Amino acid sequence: MNAQHITDIFFDLDHTLWDFDRNSRLAFYRVFEAHRIGMDINQFIEVYEPINFQYWKMYREDRIDKLGLRRGRFKDAFAPFGMHFSTEELDQLANTYISELPKDNHLFDGAMDVLQYLSAKNYSMHIITNGFEEVQHLKLKNSNIDLFFKTVTTSEEVGVKKPNPLVFEKALEKAKTTPKQSIMIGDTFEADIMGAEAVGMHTLFYNYRRETPPENYRIIDAISEIKKHL
Q1: Distance of alpha carbon 3 from alpha carbon 229, whole angstroms
Q2: CB under 8 A, 24+ apart: contacts of 44-49
Q3: What's the pLDDT tens digit per position in 170-190?
Q4: How far apart are CA 153 and CA 157, in angstroms?
Q5: How many H-runs (helices) and E-runs (strands) does the chain carry?
Q6: Sorting pLDDT into bands at 50, 70 and 90, what band is 69?
Q7: pTM
Q8: Buried b (16+ CB within 10 A) or exposed e, 60-91
Q9: How would residue 134 be classed by pLDDT, with cut points 50, 70 and 90?
Q10: Could you give the CA distance from residue 208 to residue 46 in angstroms, rounded to a whole number?
Q11: If phi over 0 gives left and psi between -120 and 50 gives alpha, with beta otherwise, what is residue 186?
Q12: Which CATH number do you get for residue 58?
């Protein structure tokens, strides 16, 4: 990749710029208080996070729908603690969580600095996200980074999810650019990197979960390292 040929940078949002795990934990404190759930938050989070990751994988693969994700991740996370909820109660928990989630908007260390750096270099920046439409725009606005991005493409808008090529093709169309002039930066190898690569985009993998990806991919371990590549 020749950085001089790149004009457009596409970012994933959750776990890439927006510190989802930190913000989610803070939201859960308010969820537990609102629904009078008396249990240790840390123990719950330890169980919930890997379950949530697997449910998002099933959602990407169309094995469950949005409602199945929202209900199932809570049902499965509370079950090991002997706590069981009706469908109505699960929906109430899910709605409270979705409402509380965009209220805390911590970014990863260095994210704001990198966005300012890239903006000063006149890159056009964009978001491609599988996150729910109703909260992703709030996250961008509430964390004061919405003005950096010329376009935002969500999977709900397109009707399919990353890594489906239609999501990337729609984002490129909205950005009025080409794959060869574009790079995708994200934390989920299958969805962000393989998906973007399939349509001819350059990629940069943010190895947030300290995985072992295939060789010959550009990888960063911190958002600040983007400056080394662009």
Answers
A1: 7
A2: 44/77, 44/78, 44/81, 47/77, 47/80, 47/81, 48/73, 48/77, 49/21
A3: 999 999 999 999 999 999 999
A4: 7
A5: 9, 6
A6: very high
A7: 0.93
A8: beeebeeeebbbbbbbebbeeeeeebeeeebe
A9: confident
A10: 17
A11: beta
A12: 1.10.150.240
> Contact 111/17 with Cβ under 8 angstroms?
yes
Boundaries of domain holding 76: 20-103
Tokens of 131: 């996150």
Q: What total of structural domains would you count in the chain?
A: 2
pLDDT digits 0-9 by tens, 73-83: 999 999 999 99
The pLDDT tens digits for 96-112 are 999 999 999 999 999 99
What integer pLDDT is reported at residue 116 of this predicted model? 98
* CATH number of the CATH domain containing 117: 3.40.50.1000
